[in-house]
Amino acid sequence: MIGIIGAMSVEVENLIAVMTDKSTQTISEVVYYSGKIENIDCVVAKCGVGKVASAICAQTMILNYHPGAVINVGVAGGIGENIHIGDIVVSSGLVQHDMDTTAIGDEKGLISGLNIVIVPASSRLVDLVVSTAKQIYGQGVHVGVIATGDQFISSGDRLKEIAREFGASACEMEGGSIAQVCYINHVDFVVIRAISDNANEAANIDFAAFAISSAHKTAELIMKILPSI
Ligand code: ADE
């Protein structure tokens, strides 16, 4: 069973549309669609935006469906001059950029308890996603740290800060919390994001223009990956 989580409808709607043998279960207001995609058993959920909503969804999915791997799909703001709208960023690891206990002597982004800043994604899944994405798209496929926080980033200054502190290639609002939940449950995960904006002052306009096409791109990629997972 493969778990697939997206924050918004556009990020999961095409996956739900092609699912066969579909059944649904609603838990804590999230609908879990289980069935087959490309003949692989999957559970797909739209978790809602942000770290709390996505953590609730990931934990609930793991406890109820026992997925062997969890994939977080959707859009992100690109960080860095070589990351363009429409590009794919596959997570080497996830950081929560708004986790900050530096005032009591910790490293920025440290997840207390786990004692790590970056939660590593499954290298097997990263390699599989990257090789499939390169086969389909050729260029514009990147592997890097993805930075998560409860903020839509739309400022060059904030963006540069996240890049400097964590060397991140993309920013979004759910991957880091899903990563933390998977990590403590010993479930393999990877985050696959297509860039909808560059997290700068034009991010709101670009997001409105490109979120749908970029979100659909990650769903298309998932369908190509599933048979080899
Ligand atoms: N998701 C897509 N674009 C984003 C941005 N600029 N900040 C946070 N999450 C995003």
Automatic annotation (TrEMBL):
<dbReference type="GO" id="GO:0008782">
    <property type="term" value="F:adenosylhomocysteine nucleosidase activity"/>
</dbReference>
<keyword id="KW-0486">Methionine biosynthesis</keyword>
<keyword id="KW-0326">Glycosidase</keyword>
<dbReference type="InterPro" id="IPR010049">
    <property type="entry name" value="MTA_SAH_Nsdase"/>
</dbReference>
<dbReference type="InterPro" id="IPR000845">
    <property type="entry name" value="Nucleoside_phosphorylase_d"/>
</dbReference>
<keyword id="KW-0028">Amino-acid biosynthesis</keyword>
<comment type="pathway">
    <text>Amino-acid biosynthesis; L-methionine biosynthesis via salvage pathway; S-methyl-5-thio-alpha-D-ribose 1-phosphate from S-methyl-5'-thioadenosine (hydrolase route): step 1/2.</text>
</comment>
<dbReference type="InterPro" id="IPR035994">
    <property type="entry name" value="Nucleoside_phosphorylase_sf"/>
</dbReference>
<keyword id="KW-0378">Hydrolase</keyword>
<feature type="domain" description="Nucleoside phosphorylase">
    <location>
        <begin position="2"/>
        <end position="226"/>
    </location>
</feature>
<protein>
    <recommendedName>
        <fullName>adenosylhomocysteine nucleosidase</fullName>
        <ecNumber>3.2.2.9</ecNumber>
    </recommendedName>
</protein>
<dbReference type="Pfam" id="PF01048">
    <property type="entry name" value="PNP_UDP_1"/>
</dbReference>
